[in-house]
Write a structure and sequence with these properties.
41 strands, alpha+beta, eight-stranded antiparallel sheet, 681 residues, 17 helices, globular, eight-stranded antiparallel beta barrel
Length: 681
C-alpha cells in the first residue's frame, strides 16, 4: 500500500480524500493556487505545495505543475478527485511514465469512456441502447444548426470532455442552437481545454439515474445500486438520492449488469459511474460513463457502507476487490443536497465573498458499515445519519475562480420519508452568512409534493419554478407555529432588557402578555403565558400552542419545540422583531404590542428604486463580450452581453424594447454585483 498520496484537486473533494487516506494511515499532499493559500484542504493535508495563480488553467489543470509537485513531494500515487484532470488521459499517461500510480482507471479506459463521443460509439457497438444523436465532431455553429434540425428539436449540445453541467445547452430552435454551440464551445475550452462539441436528442420527461460500478485489475466488477439525480438546474445536479424511488429490483439489476459489462469491456479498474436516462416506462438509455469518482458518491456510501475512496486507493495499489455482488445490500435511504454559493433570489447567480458565519449541522453516524467484505453488525433500525462534505470554513473566502459548491449535506435514515425529514431539520440548522446561497431553495424542494412523492423528472426545477425562486409562503398552521415561537422568544428578550444594570426591584419595567405577531402578510393577536419550562401562546381564535426551548437572546439558531414537534429557525434581530429563515422561507416576523401594531398600520410602504432603465451586473464576473452599441435599438430577448463567473457563461438579454444610451463596461472588465453595465431610454 502507498505511504503518500498527492491530491490533484481542491475544495471539498480534496478534504474528502484526505479523510479516508488518514483513516488508512496514508500521508497526503495538497496542491494549491494563490486563491487557495488558506483553504481547508491545505490545512488538512500533511504537506502542501503551491502550483500557481488562481485560474485553473494556470494551476490545477496544468499537468507539468502537478508533476513537479509530485516529484517535490515524493508521492507514490495521485488521486484526481473529480473535474480538473480526473478524466484527462494525458495526465494519466504522464503519471504512468513517471512510475506514479493513478487512483483511477487505466489510460485506455479513460480514452475509451471518458470521451463522450467515443463512449457512445462503443456502447452502440456493444448493443447498448443509446439516445439518438450525432457523434461526429462539429466544426461551426451553422453545422450545429443543420445537425440539430436533422435530429429534431429539442436537442442537447454537450462538450465531449464535459462534466458538472459545464459546456451544456438545450436548444429548442435554430437561434438557440447557434448561440448554444458557441457558448458550449467557449465553456468547454475554458473548463477542460477541449472545445469539441456533440449533439444528441433531448428526451422530454426523463429521469437521470446512474449506476455506481467498482472494478479491479483482476477482472472483478460489481455495481453498488443506483442514484437518482433528476433534480437539476442548467444540467447541474442539485439533489441526489439513493436508491431511486422509481426503479424496481428488476430494472435495477438490468441496469447494473449492463453497466458492469460495459466497464469490463474497456478494462475498467476503479470506481466509475454509468449514467442512464430513464423514461416513464422504465426504458433506459446509456448516456455516458464518468471515469472518476462522482460528486454524489456519499449517498451510495451511506446505503452500502462501502468507502469508495478507500476502494479506489486499494485497486490502484493492485489489490483485488474483497466485496462480491452478493455482499452489496442497499440499506435505508440517503439524500444529498448540494449547497452552492448561488443566490436563488437572483436567478441562482453566483455569489462570492467571505463566509462571515459557517456552522453546518452536527454530523452523526448511522447506517450500514461494510469492512473488507464483512458487515459490521446490523444497520440501526431507527437512527438517522447526518454527513457534511465541505471544503470551506467560517471566515474563509468563496472565490470567483472555481465551482460555487460550498458543501454536500447528506442524511440517511431507514426510510425515504425519515431521510427527507432528517434533511429538512439539517437544512434549517445549517447557518451560512456573508454570501448568497441556495439553502432556502433546497429546503423548498424537500417540502415540494412532487419530490416528496418521488414523481419528478429532470425538468422538475424548470416546470415547478418557471419564474425563478422567490421564497416559500408557509401554510397558516406553520405560520402559527413560527408566530408562537417568536412571541415566546420575544418575551424572553423583553424580560432580559428589564434586567439591565440600573433597573432593579420595583423599578423593573413590566412585560405584558398581549402581543401582535405579523409575518408573511398574516397578523395574529396572541397572549403569552410563561412558566419555568416554556410558554403557552394562545391565539385570538382560541388555538393554544405550547412552546419550549433553551433559546437565549443573541443565539442565531433557535431549536424549539411547538406542541412537542421540532421547530428549527435561523434568527437575527430586526427592528421590532426577528428575521427568520426556515423551511425555504425568509421572512420578517414583527412582534409588537397592540398599540405598536395599530400604529404600524399607518406607516407608508417603502418602494424599491426604479432600475428599469439600467442593465445591472447580476453577479461578480468578467465581461466576455458586449453585443450591442450605444444608440442601437434592441428588442425583447436580444443578447446584450455575456458575463463569465465560476466557469459558466451567462448571456444577459433585453427585457423589453429599448435604445442603448450608454455602455459603461468593455470586454475583459471585472464587475461587481449591481455594477451598471449599460443604460437605456
Amino acid at each position: 500500500m502507498f505511504d503518500k498520496i498527492l491530491i490533484a484537486n481542491r475544495g471539498e473533494i480534496a478534504c474528502r480524500v484526505i479523510k479516508t487516506a488518514r483513516k488508512m494511515g496514508i500521508s497526503t499532499v495538497a496542491v494549491y493556487s494563490d486563491a487557495d493559500r488558506n483553504a481547508l484542504h491545505v490545512a488538512m493535508a500533511d504537506e502542501a505545495i503551491h502550483i500557481g495563480p488562481p485560474p485553473a488553467n494556470q494551476s490545477y489543470i496544468v499537468i507539468d505543475k502537478i508533476m513537479e509537485a509530485i516529484k517535490a513531494s515524493g508521492a507514490q500515487a495521485v488521486h484526481p478527485g473529480y473535474g480538473f484532470l480526473s478524466e484527462n488521459p494525458k495526465f494519466a499517461q504522464a503519471l504512468e511514465a513517471a512510475g506514479v500510480a493513478f487512483v483511477g482507471p487505466p489510460v485506455k479506459a479513460i480514452e475509451a469512456m471518458g470521451d463522450k463521443i467515443t463512449s457512445k460509439k462503443i456502447a452502440q457497438e456493444a448493443g447498448v441502447s443509446t439516445v439518438p444523436g450525432y457523434m461526429g465532431l462539429i466544426e461551426d455553429a451553422e453545422e450545429a444548426v443543420k445537425i440539430s434540425g436533422e435530429i429534431g428539436y429539442p436537442v442537447m449540445i454537450k462538450a465531449s470532455a464535459g462534466g458538472g453541467g459545464k459546456g451544456m445547452r438545450i436548444a429548442w430552435n435554430d437561434t438557440e442552437a447557434r448561440e448554444g454551440f458557441q457558448s458550449s464551445k467557449n465553456e468547454a475550452a475554458n473548463s477542460f481545454g477541449d472545445d469539441r462539441i456533440f449533439i444528441e436528442k433531448f428526451v422530454t420527461q426523463p429521469r437521470h439515474i446512474e449506476i455506481q460500478v467498482l472494478c479491479d485489475s483482476h477482472g472483478n466488477g460489481i455495481y453498488l445500486g443506483e442514484r437518482e439525480c433528476s433534480i437539476q438546474r442548467r444540467n447541474q445536479k442539485v439533489v441526489e438520492e439513493a436508491p431511486s424511488p422509481f426503479l424496481d429490483e428488476e430494472t435495477r439489476k438490468a441496469m447494473g449488469e449492463q453497466a458492469v459489462a460495459l466497464a469490463k469491456a474497456v478494462g475498467y479498474a476503479s470506481a466509475g459511474t454509468v449514467e442512464f436516462i430513464v423514461d416513464g416506462s422504465k426504458n433506459f438509455y446509456f448516456l455516458e460513463m464518468n471515469t472518476r469518482l462522482q460528486v454524489e458518491h456519499p449517498v451510495t456510501e451511506l446505503i452500502t457502507g462501502v468507502d469508495l475512496v478507500e476502494q479506489m486507493i486499494r485497486v490502484a495499489g493492485g489489490e483485488p476487490l474483497t466485496i462480491t455482488q452478493d455482499d452489496v445490500k442497499l440499506t435505508g435511504w440517503a439524500i444529498e443536497n448540494r449547497l452552492y454559493a448561488e443566490d436563488p433570489y437572483r436567478n441562482f447567480l453566483p455569489s462570492i465573498g467571505r463566509l462571515t458565519r459557517y456552522r453546518p449541522p452536527e454530523e452523526q453516524a448511522a447506517g450500514p458499515l461494510l469492512v473488507n467484505g464483512k458487515w459490521q453488525g446490523d444497520a440501526p433500525s431507527g437512527d438517522t445519519a447526518v454527513r457534511n462534505d465541505t471544503g470551506v470554513y467560517e471566515g474563509g473566502e468563496i472565490s470567483m475562480y472555481y465551482d460555487p459548491m460550498i458543501a454536500k449535506l447528506c442524511t440517511w435514515a431507514p426510510t425515504r420519508e425519515a431521510a427527507i425529514e432528517a434533511m429538512r431539520i439539517a437544512l434549517d440548522r445549517f447557518e451560512v452568512e456573508g454570501i448568497g446561497h441556495n439553502l432556502p431553495f433546497l429546503a423548498a424542494v424537500m417540502d415540494h409534493p412532487k419530490f416528496v412523492s418521488g414523481d419528478m423528472t429532470t425538468a422538475f426545477i424548470a416546470e415547478e419554478y418557471p419564474e425563478g425562486f422567490d421564497g416559500v409562503t408557509l401554510p397558516e398552521a406553520e405560520l402559527k407555529r413560527v408566530a408562537a415561537a417568536c412571541a415566546a422568544m420575544n418575551r424572553v428578550a423583553e424580560i432580559r432588557k428589564t434586567r439591565i444594570s440600573g433597573r432593579m426591584g420595583n423599578h423593573e419595567r413590566h412585560v405584558g402578555n398581549d402581543w401582535n405577531v405579523a409575518l408573511q402578510g398574516a397578523s395574529f393577536d396572541v397572549k403569552v403565558d410563561a412558566s419555568p419550562d416554556g410558554a403557552t401562546v394562545t391565539f385570538d381564535d382560541g388555538t393554544a400552542l405550547r412552546v419550549a426551548g433553551d433559546w437565549t437572546p443573541g443565539d442565531q439558531l433557535a431549536e424549539m419545540t411547538v406542541d412537542g414537534a421540532p421547530l428549527v429557525m435561523k434568527v437575527k434581530y430586526i427592528s421590532g422583531g426577528f428575521g427568520v429563515r426556515m423551511r425555504g422561507a425568509d421572512m420578517k416576523v414583527h412582534v409588537r404590542t397592540p398599540r405598536q401594531a395599530e400604529l404600524a398600520q399607518l406607516m407608508p410602504e417603502k418602494l424599491p428604486p426604479d432600475t428599469s432603465k439600467l442593465l445591472l451586473c447580476p453577479m461578480p464576473g468578467l465581461v466576455v463580450k458586449i453585443d450591442v452599441e450605444e444608440g442601437q435599438e434592441v428588442q425583447e430577448g436580444q443578447p446584450l452581453c455575456t458575463i463569465e463567473a465560476m466557469k459558466m457563461e451567462n448571456i444577459l438579454r433585453a427585457e423589453k424594447k429599448a435604445v442603448v444610451t450608454k455602455i459603461n463596461a468593455a470586454a475583459g472588465a471585472s464587475l461587481a454585483v449591481d455594477d451598471v453595465i449599460m443604460e437605456f431610454e
